[in-house]
Each structure stands twice: as structure tokens, then as C-alpha cells.
Amino acid sequence: MWVEVEIAKHGGALSFHDFMELALYHPRHGYYSSSRPRYGRGGDYLTAPTASAWYAAVHRHWLIRLAAVLGPLTVVDVASGDGSYLAGLLERETASFLDRAVSVERSDALRAVQDERFAGAAEVVPSLQEALPPKSAAVLHLSELYDAMPVHRVVQRDDGLSEMWVAAGDGNLVWQERAARPELGDYLRRHGVSLESGQIAEIDLHACSFHRRLLRWAGVRAAVLTLDYGYPAGRLYDSRGRRSGSLACYREHRLTRDPLAVPGEQDLTAHVNWDDLRHAAEAEGWHEVGLYPLAELLVRAGLTEVVEECGLGLAAEIDGATYRNRQEIKRLLDPDGMGSDLKVLVQAGPEVAELVAESLGNPVPPPSREAGSEE
Ligand SMILES: C[S@@+](CC[C@H](N)C(=O)[O-])C[C@H]1O[C@@H](n2cnc3c(N)ncnc32)[C@H](O)[C@@H]1O
User: Fold this and answer.
1) What is the domain-level CATH number for residue 117?
2) How far apart are CA 191 and CA 29, in angstroms?
């Protein structure tokens, strides 16, 4: 198996973090290195932009409203996958609300798919650092970026915190435990978390610094919408809800719990600690506009108006197309699924926070704590 060769190259064992990095992003065998669609209906799982074109349509409506007060926008889709979100925004001829469309995607194969799809209508780059920072007001959209980032996996033992490693066994992969590196214990202490004996947890040591760099790149006239599965630390690490951590694997729309099975052939994902992104905003002097369930965000962004404008409202004729469209919208709003499980954290830079909050029907957000703390 290719992964065993990689493990042997690294001395016979890898931290789970490095194993996850390989399983998802190995340039040849990694899950996201394939141009085969990984998500969407023909893939392994649905994301909001691939579940329904109505997702981007509602965003488009909101962005037009925002551009009316902020001027034409730079819209950046970070971790853009197959490009469905920007494709939805660019769909109609009149995209005058857009100054620039930028798509950031790490996977070479997916960027190639997008180059063909956009044919120059959007800049497609592998990292934010390779795009010029925005000159106009900007909106950054991150759908399931942080839950696709490699995490460390720890388990609390009676004699201390252990880190989980992956080693090659007799024809299979096996878990190993080693004393956890000090940063992992520091992370839990910083978030006020103490794990129970036997409790497993995933930790992304880099989410906060990554988010800070992203906010800095975006500038003070920008909003960032982060759509993801997650909880604040107190809930994410609560042993009553997640004694085995949040790590999950998806293949052909089925959830499994063996992350070591079929490396490169299944998605591996762990929930986001929203507090990491909140700390990033506080440190950069940004404001939190709100953390909303997806359904609420879409309603605040103008879903009802979009439904009426498109003739799908109460007065609509019930034909096949109306029914199908309404079913698609319901999928995004599903209170037992995406509509409530997926959350959207909206953060805004100091110069536009008030306008962004108003555009989502919110009171003015309170000022954030002192900017400029150490990373
Ligand atoms: C779960 S998919 C989500 C795709 C898309 N946003 C959607 O919602 O349909 C995660 C994507 O993030 C990309 N990705 C992961 N880390 C990245 C990074 N640091 N910069 C850009 N893209 C990244 C992966 O290659 C993958 O395409």
C-alpha cells in the first residue's frame, strides 16, 4: 500500500496529523488530489454549494445588496473545491456587483477542473498568498475548509496526555501512542479544557494563525463567512457529547469511523473549534457579526426574496420544476440536517462591520477586544 511506503520513509510511524495530511493531500494518492468529484451527489458527501445551486443564488442576492453600499466587491472563495460557489455567482451575465472573483484551491487537480470551468472569469490560485490583496471591499467565503485540515489526535491517559500515531502493522495500519508534544496540552489548557481519562480529542494547532493571516490579507474593509461543522471549545471537548472525538470518515455518502481504512479513498474530517477563529478575530481587531445555523444565515441573506423573485413562493403553480426547486431549498434549510448542523461564522473588519451586520438584519456588533496581540 502506498501509505506504508510513506510511513517506512518516515522511520516506521507518523503522527496522526501527518498521516491525515498524506491521506488527504499526498500529491498523487491523496483524497483531494483526484479530479474525480469527491463531493456533490456523485461523490462521497454533500457540501452546501454542491448540494444546491440555491446556496450561491442566495449569496448572490446578498452580495448585490452589500455592493450597493460598499461598491463592487472582491469575492474570494477559499478552499473552493470544484468551484460551484463562484460558478453560481458568475452564472448570470450581470455580475456588476463583482470587481474581482478569486478562487483559492490547494489541489492541482481541482484547480485544473476550475481553469476549464471559469475560462478566465475568475483567478484560480493555490494559496491566498499568490493572489494580490483586495483593493475593493472584499467578501471571503470558506466552506468546509477548516474541517478538511489535518488535526492532531490525543487521548487522555491516567498518567498524562498521549498523542496518537499511525504505524505499519502486519499488512495493516495500527495505532500507537506516544507522550503528547507540549503544544497539545498547552492548547487544551488555553481553551480551559480538561479531558476525562480515556477521552479522545482532535486538535488543530494551526487554525487560529491561519485565520489571522487570512483576515490580515483581506484588510479592514472585508467580511469573512466561514461555513463549517463545529462547536466552541466547551462543547467540542465535552466528554458527554464527544468522548471519542469528532473525527469522521465519509465514503459514498456513508459515515464510517475507521480513519486508517483505505487511505486516500475516503474523506477524513474533524469538527472546527469556533473559539480558534474567534480568537483570531479578536487579535486582529475584527468584529463577530454572528454564528448562525445555515438556515438562519440564508434567511437573513434574503432567501425569502429570492424565492419570491424566482416565482417559487406561495403563489407559484405547483409543477414539477417548482416542486424540485422547493425540495432543493428545503435540503439547505433541513432542521435535521445541513440547515442546523452546518454553522456560519460571520466576521467583519472594523471599517465595514456595521454595514455587514445591518445587511444581515443584525444590530451593530460590539467592538472587539484590543487588536495586535501576539500570534
Ligand atoms: C471539504 S472540501 C470543500 C470544497 C468546497 N468549499 C465546497 O464546500 O464544496 C475542502 C477543500 O479544501 C481544499 N483545501 C484544503 N486546505 C486548503 C488550503 N490551505 N487552501 C486552499 N484549499 C484548501 C481541499 O483541497 C478541498 O478541495
Assistant:
1) 3.40.50.12710
2) 35
Measured from the CB, is residue 47 less than 6 Å from ligand 1? yes
What whole-number distance in Å separates Cα of residue 1 and Cα of residue 168? 10
Cell numbers placing 58: 442566495
Q: How far is CA 120 from CA 12, 84, 270, 314, 334, in A?
A: 45, 15, 34, 39, 35
**Range of 65's domain?**
48-149+205-229+271-303+326-359
Q: Write out pLDDT tens, residues 19-64.
A: 999 999 999 999 999 767 677 777 777 899 999 999 999 999 999 9
- Tell me, yes or no, whether 184 lies in a domain: yes
CA distance 373 to 204: 20
Q: Which residues pair with 140 in a beta bridge?
A: 76, 224
Q: Is 15 in the pocket of ligand 1 (CB under 6 A)?
A: no
Nearest to 98 by CA among 59, 132, 47: 59
Domains held by the chain: number: 2
Q: What is the pLDDT of residues 263-284, one digit of tens each?
A: 999 999 999 999 999 999 999 9
Cα–Cα distance measured from residue 161 to residue 296, given in angstroms and rounded to the nearest whole number = 39
Pocket test for ligand 1, best of 105, 142, 267, 338 (most atoms within 8 A of CB): 105
